[in-house]
Amino acid sequence: DAVLRIVASLEPALLRDLIRYSVLVFCVALALKAIWGEDVSPLIGALGVGGVVLGFALQETLSNFFAGLALIAEKPFVQGDWVQIGSTAEGRIEQMTWRATKIRTRREDLAIFPNSVVTKEIIVNFLKPTRVHALNLPVSASYNDAPDHVKQTLLELLAQVPGVLKSPAPVIYLTGYGDSAINYAIKCYIDDYDKRSAIEDQILSRVWYAFRRNAIEIPFPIQTV
To answer: Is this model's pTM higher than 0.70 or not?
Structure first.
């Protein structure tokens, strides 16, 4: 019972399954030895030969299994982390089994990646090394509006948005002069990635109201013919 309690406490499920099956094989070998009193070495040898044949047949499955072991050793993420795997999916880690890693996307879909695919992709963990995450949002203003005035307006509205951290402090960058507008980038920080979309919505919505109050124009493309 004590051994079972220790196994049950291990994470993730892949490691528990590996230990469970290893203990099962060991117990079967001991039972054969105790009941029939015979050497189980020939049986183990026969299982080894069969295992080679089976290995070729289950090459992809074994690849996923050992890739899962590599993920356990390196721990690029744990259950509950927000990650992006490659460029295809972003979501929260739901579970990692001996075959696949499952993530829950923002649209509440379940994306399942074979472990062998996960180990070949670039993994971005949004909660490591810390929970602090930077947001970068583009904003444009008219050439008639002084950059210092635009920056100050943006900083003042960021101070009023729930979820935006005071430290590290937000920063506004002028990123370039476009055909019809001066382009800026808002860089601010959050520590709750679950609310990223909601915080971005609050920031961009308040930009419109703040610009309107401060007589800052949000330009649209204009071409003179």
So the answer is: no
Token digits for 3?
Answer: 């051994």
Stated as kind and residue range, the H or E segment containing 157 is helix 147-158
Nearest to 211 by CA among 160, 142, 162, 159: 142
- The Cα angle at residue 126 between residues 121 and 132, in degrees rounded to 5: 155
Amino acid at 168: P
* Distance between first and last Cα of the chain: 84
Q: Could you report the per-residue pLDDT of 89-101, keeping only the tens digit for each?
A: 889 999 888 788 8
- What's the length of the chain? 225
Residue labelled with tokens 């948005």: 161
Non-local (6+) Cβ contacts of 133 within 8 A are 126, 127, 189, 190, 191, 193, 196
Which residues have a Cβ under 8 Å from the Cβ of 162 and sit 6 or more positions away?
199, 202
Nearest Cα to 165, choosing from 188, 185, 186, 187?
188
